[in-house]
Amino acid sequence: ARGNKIAAANGYGSDHLPMYDLEPKLAEFKDHFNYTMKRYLEQKLLIEKHEGGLEEFSKGYLKFGINTEHGASLYREWAPAAEEAQLVGDFNNWNGSGHKMTKDNFGVWSIRISHVNGKPAIPHNSKVKFRFRHDGVWVERIPAWIRYATVTASESGAPYDGVHWDPPTSERYVFNHPRPPKPDVPRIYEAHVGVSGGKLEAGTHREFADNVLPRLRATTYNTVQLMGIMEHSDAASFGYYVTNFFAVSSRSGTPDDLKYLIDKAHSLGLCVLMDVVHSHVSNNVIDGLNGYDVGQSAHESYFYTGDRGYNKMWNGRMFNYANWEVLRFLLSNLRYWMDEFMFDGFRFVGVTSMLYNQNGINMSFTGNYKEYFGLDTNVDAVVYMMLANHLMHKLYPEAIVVAVDVSGIPVLCWPVDEGGLGFDYRQAMTIPDRWIEYLENKGDQQWSMSSVISQTLTNRRYPEKFIAYAERQNHSIIGSKTMAFLLMGWETYSGMSAMEPDSPTIDRGIALQKMIHFIRMAFGGDSYLKFMGNEYMNAFDQAVDTPSDKCSFLSSSKQTASDMNEEEKAKSKFSVPVSAPRDYTMATAEDGVGDLPIYDLDPKFAGFKEHFSYRMKKYLDQKHSIEKHEGGLEEFSKGYLKFGINTENDATVYREWAPAAMDAQLIGDFNNWNGSGHRMTKDNYGVWSIRISHVNGKPAIPHNSKVKFRFHRGDGLWVDRVPAWIRYATFDASKFGAPYDGVHWDPPSGERYVFKHPRPRKPDAPRIYEAHVGMSGEKPEVSTYREFADNVLPRIKANNYNTVQLMAIMEHSYYASFGYHVTNFFAVSSRSGTPEDLKYLVDKAHSLGLRVLMDVVHSHASSNKTDGLNGYDVGQNTQESYFHTGERGYHKLWDSRLFNYANWEVLRFLLSNLRYWMDEFMFDGFRFDGVTSMLYNHHGINMSFAGSYKEYFGLDTDVDAVVYLMLANHLMHKLLPEATVVAEDVSGMPVLCRSVDEGGVGFDYRLAMAIPDRWIDYLKNKDDLEWSMSGIAHTLTNRRYTEKCIAYAESHDQSIVGDKTMAFLLMDKEMYTGMSDLQPASPTIDRGIALQKMIHFITMALGGDGYLNFMGNEFGHPEWIDFPREGNNWSYDKCRRQWSLADIDHLRYKYMNAFDQAMNALDDKFSFLSSSKQIVSDMNEEKKIIVFERGDLVFVFNFHPSKTYDGYKVGCDLPGKYKVALDSDALMFGGHGR
């Protein structure tokens, strides 16, 4: 935002706005640009000062009109000229005497009507009007902010009624599909829903969605632009004489019908733009906004007064863009359509009328800059458009905003911060006029090739993007003709049959129709538009889109006209063939995403180049933005040194991102929980901060003292929340359900734990011991970090694991969530100790040569508002929240909130979270939980992945989340090249574990999640003789060999109450009576111990490139896991590990533990896990034998329940003498020593 910053720094001087570098002539009009930029910045500053910023200001539709607030219907209307006012409607039989409204100092009338028996007093879909008195006369008007308006169709000329639209939850349309990614080049299909049907009646939104959208998708358009959406009482106005700005045109259906249309478009990969008419208003007094003008001054009206307030060409009223409430109305109007209906952008109609005081009437623009930048410019309107474009692109960075301007004003499509108006595209409006002129006034031989090319198609400002089109929709209006009808006239009725030869007129007409549209598309701009129906000839229209889709020529800056032969009319005859000199890969290679290395790994990936190119481009763009604005990922990820509570220059500084807060305080023990003396200030980015100087050289907020962030929600309520970046949080264990308090953790130097041991080197293959500290003790209580370090780590080391993976480290208020419902992301779970205690654990592990991974939960957050991050969501839009809004922000199976990974501050929070745990606690990597939920918009719910690549690379992919994971993996491996990062993904998405630079997501390993499911299926549902050897081998080897997997035989989830560990499934209740080695083993125990060993060993040896075991399963821990809860009388009996079972010499648990030690030691010696050599040589279904080689070892497994074999022949890759390296049947492992 260089221009903006310079403008502010120079007192709005704008002495060197970036646009002067692009166009030196603009510098001659510095005074104009200085004044415009000054007005824009002042207006923006005033809105920030008095309304909390543009984003808050633009939520007017949540305040004005009829809304539900705290058990009541609240109606507000700005009508300063009214002397008295009432709300009338069906709900009060149109008698307003009991519903008089009150007026505030700003001209806003309001009334609060309490619900009756819990139901709104104004029912959904009931009629309402605003009745007010002026000069002694009472009039009724439709509420200005009404969201639906209807007319009695059977009564000619009947007035419209406002309709209160607030359907019950079950009747509201819920969006099921995310917005598609913004196309590099919009190919726009312009449509009017009302005239889209085949019947002689108004088409509906649902008919358009079901019948028309598939047609335009088949023609490979990527964007649909809808006209006539805002309510307009005159149907013949094409939707350009708007009466009700927030209301969906009722001719075509309800607001929920329109939502269905947009969602259907999104499901087809189509972006949806809307024609927005903010240039003028219908002069209809009865039905529209003009009814609020009763002759008052411009300051009390939506419109200018006198001639300035009236467009004589359009017979419409002109907005007063300098008026505060007009700005609120129009900016909120844009936001309403984007937020409530998921529109992807807008086409602003009538921009020329807005830009100039004379509205462009009787003006012939020659291109002289004095025509654009002088006293004729309506600076108020320019400032409004700058504010609007700034707002739209901040709310939705991928918004597409198009301007309809015939004047050609420069800088219309330059960013606001560079001094421009901020539109993305402008329509090339001279092109259709040129074609009409030629078709109506010139013979074919009179067509000028140079004029077509140089004066029309290429006559545009190349720093700004244009949308080219060959014919306008108003060429189709009565009194004019479509291009096809101009070319072929009445012969279109009689000569279009393919069953007879073409007439010369039809032959010429079809040829020119195709050529004109194609040359306009190829040479006329950076995008193109076609009005509904003009795409016929249909097959050629589809073919025209194909080279654009494949070669991306519309987005190319290379454009050379090499021949404009006036004599031969080469362009008219189309004698120069169209060619594609480079393929799609070449076309995108300049962006660094064209020829990704992953295409060499799997040729099938090339079929999804568009997807990979898009997500790689988004990753590179995001990374570049962070580098540009934050100094790089490494600096960006140091957020924990800026946010939360930190010491800076003899003061305590606290920062919190809470853009939805209206006021904020820091409270705690240090100020007796009274924040009146510790008010915080808010910057332009929604960050609240306070600086508290040290007292007598000591921090004002003592170490280990409680703190909270108190903020005003904007609805009159103050709430207290645990700081989002807090590093420690505790609760009063003596009080049931007590809330957590944030604890400022900043121990003096003498109390801080200092690491003594370096990180161990990264092993070739991780052998991971998965552990939960809280349940790791033998006593029925929560175990501590120090107890785990001193008692459990030596056991892990003795069993020859090289990595320990810790669950439930992040603070989680609900203990039974297994740590997966995180409330405080930077806080160590206080149940097991302090941050210093956890550092002791990690350092102790390093001293034993054990690397330490941490379960990180960035897939969702606890829905707990009191204790967690969800408490910062107070109903604001997603750009101001950590989470998505609506259903997209809620995981219905997990009852948790879902992050908005496209949000700048969410990226800072999550990336800093990773760095915090690595830097401060010396973790050696992470296991990312719930990755499947992150990868897909459907979160994997009710999905059965069959392996089709279309399941992985398409519109269901949450590209924002994928980009976050790419950034995270890039960052972690840059900070710590030897980091180990594991993904928990059940879908099997390819390239998840390929490096980011290759086009992958960047993980080192993925969990082989199908393996434990296979074993559970066999153990629960099949007899031993029904086990399939090929099925087992297939499950263990069914993985992408270019990506590494961590194999495991049983999941910790299998141990949770309601299920059993594998050992308990195998031996069940006999584990209570039959595990004594002082008596012979029963057949159940004998079989159980044998299969426990074999299943874990074959999983390790054949299932992946690493191995994982959950705490206690190495010795066959019995029973299940049951966290303390009301249902078990808050017992910890099943929430612990009974290590003594493995230690008691006369119990058989020792055999399973010894075998676990031995199989890990075997990999230590022979490194078979890291070997790429893996050959399955025998899968004997009859004898139940599996033979395979891994590395230098030959593995032979006999799964037959009763047969043993002598002299069984085993083929080997290498000749020589072999000896037994490990035997599960050895006596030392509880076998029979056969």
From TrEMBL:
One GO term (biological process): starch catabolic process
Gene3D superfamilies documented for this protein: Glycosidases (3.20.20.80), Golgi alpha-mannosidase II (2.60.40.1180), Immunoglobulins (2.60.40.10)
UniProt pathway: Glycan biosynthesis; starch biosynthesis
Compartments, record wording: Plastid, Amyloplast
GO molecular function annotations of the record: 1,4-alpha-glucan branching enzyme activity; cation binding; hydrolase activity, hydrolyzing O-glycosyl compounds
One matching Pfam family: Alpha-amylase
Domain of life assignment: Eukaryota
E.C. number: 2.4.1.18
Domain Glycosyl hydrolase family 13 catalytic residue range list: 781-1148
GO cellular component terms, semicolon-separated: amyloplast
SUPFAM superfamilies in UniProt: (Trans)glycosidases, E set domains, Glycosyl hydrolase domain
Reaction catalysed by this enzyme: Transfers a segment of a (1->4)-alpha-D-glucan chain to a primary hydroxy group in a similar glucan chain
Keywords attached to this entry: Amyloplast, Plastid, Transferase
Main enzyme class: transferase
Family indicated by similarity: Belongs to the glycosyl hydrolase 13 family. GlgB subfamily.
PANTHER family: 1,4-ALPHA-GLUCAN-BRANCHING ENZYME, 1,4-ALPHA-GLUCAN-BRANCHING ENZYME, CHLOROPLASTIC_AMYLOPLASTIC
Protein name: 1,4-alpha-glucan branching enzyme
Species this chain originates from: Aegilops tauschii subsp. strangulata
